[in-house]
Amino acid sequence: MSRRQREIAGGRRSAQGRGETDPGRDPRQAPRLPVNPPAAGVLPAAASDPFVNPARLHRALRLLSGSPDDCRARAAGQWREDGIWVGEQAPSPVRPVPARELERLLGGETDLLVFDALEGFDVEAFAMALGMVRGGGRLLLLTPPLEAWPRRPDREMERLAVSGWPPVGPSRFLQRLANLLREPLEAPPPRPAPALPEGGLTADQAAGVARVHRTATGHPRRPLLITADRGRGKSTLLGVAAGRLLEERGARILVTAPRRAATGILFEHVRRTLPGARPTGNGLEAGGGSIRFVAPDALVADPPAADLLLVDEAAGIPLPLLLQLVERYNRLVMASTVHGYEGSGRGFELRLKRALDRLRPGWQHHRLQQPVRWAAGDPLEAFGFRALLLDAEPPPLPEPVPSPGSCLVRALGQEELLRQPGLLEPLFGLLVSAHYRTKPSDLRYLMDAPNLRLWVVQYRETLLGALLVAEEGGLPGPLRESILAGARRPRGHLLPQLLATRCGVPEALGARCWRVVRIAVHPRLQCRGLGSRLLAHLLEEARAGGVDLVGSSFGATAELARFWTRLDFLPLRLGHRR
């Protein structure tokens, strides 16, 4: 029976449960950890389990690959009642959680998470799962044999297929992931943990609480932006700061977020700070003050008076709506995940900072670096960053900055992204920086979508911009008739279906269409003509290739509308989505 089994695990830490890495180096850079697979079998009881140890908060990744029955049986042999099993099937008495339902467990933690990827690898669910393993715990990843995995039937690969473009060949995304799983894994050496200040907050968090206090009591119209990777304790910081403001000043505090459930940790820490707080319909009252949740759209429609507005997971709120809150509330704190399961907030962060420079020049920024739910330099976190490129950044620019005329535009095949790993990360970094929210699943789309074509603009070896195009249309007659009758809505083909059903152009269903999915230009080179040059090159390729129609569907802003109309594209339909 083919099976691979391996583990990444960190060193031991002090019983204080907080660690540090050498301040002179990046905590994600670490010495190699030799692979030394432990024997398979039942985990010992929690009290003696070396992987669930309150003094050792590095988490472990163990790979179990082989046949479905073999992998699931081995994982079941290590099962514990408080574990989470992500997948469609599990041996009795385990009750699995389907990947599409994992979001409802967000905010929970476990010492053991089993992620079943035997029939399909759900990228979004895996990104969520990475943050649900408690410090000292482990994640078991179940896969087919690595050498065969990219060629195996995969539900997620099938979801990328569109009519006329079925999946072709092995999955490049899974091939890259299998390659990473074969490599030696890394863990930092153990370091003494710094003493925690009173109250159990890290130094990062304590400084953040002080800055929230200054925002609430100091000069108005100086909003505070708090950013961090997942697991750094942003919501805890907000809850502790809010509790202290209630206790000391009787403040009226409003809280908003994309979902009410996203504020659970914040309110829990308000309760811990103020055990005597009284529950109300949407919040708490204490010390003559109050804190309550209000949905973002309700805040804009009928803004209540408040001494302070806290916005948690701000990247999940549309930027125009968030900026209305910035203008309506003189004392405002926004917290956002930069790299996490929600999708990278890097593009959001860049846009928000530019807007704050314009609207509130005195705005402040606080970055949380030290993790609180696992050790610094955590190997599982580092693997997630590398596997899903959660922390991808645009490439550094050469000096002097190249002129547009010195750059080359060329097609880039998806196979190149697998053969040349040095291309993928800067390309994805460009996409992350240029788009409001790039999801982890966009990486798989980039590598595996069968109807996707790519062009890049580069100076020598440095990528400066990218263009993603989906091939659509050319649908057969019977399918066209079903679409026009309202009986079918095949996956993909957004542009021809929109033109046929909303704009009265049924011929679009049979036409060859290229839809621009994404244009990305390096943040330091925007508004210099590189995006226009990419599109001009695309139009030349389309004419030469007999393409009937080139278009796009995008979130309309005045700036984007001007960009497209300057290139002689015509607006055909304006929709509205809340």
TrEMBL record:
Residues 1-10, 19-29 have a biased composition (Basic and acidic residues). It holds the Pfam family TmcA_N. It comes from the Bacteria. Residues 414-578 form the N-acetyltransferase domain. Keywords: Acyltransferase, ATP-binding, Cytoplasm, Nucleotide-binding, RNA-binding, Transferase, tRNA processing, tRNA-binding. One of its GO terms (molecular function) is tRNA cytidine N4-acetyltransferase activity. Residues 1-47 are annotated as: Disordered. InterPro entries: Acyl_CoA_acyltransferase, GNAT_dom, P-loop_NTPase, TcmA/NAT10_helicase, TmcA/NAT10/Kre33, TmcA/NAT10_N, tRNA_acetyltr_TmcA. GO terms for biological process: rRNA acetylation involved in maturation of SSU-rRNA; tRNA acetylation; tRNA wobble cytosine modification. PANTHER family: N-ACETYLTRANSFERASE 10, RNA CYTIDINE ACETYLTRANSFERASE. This is tRNA(Met) cytidine acetyltransferase. It comes from Thiolapillus brandeum. The lineage of its organism: Bacteria, Pseudomonadati, Pseudomonadota, Gammaproteobacteria, Chromatiales.
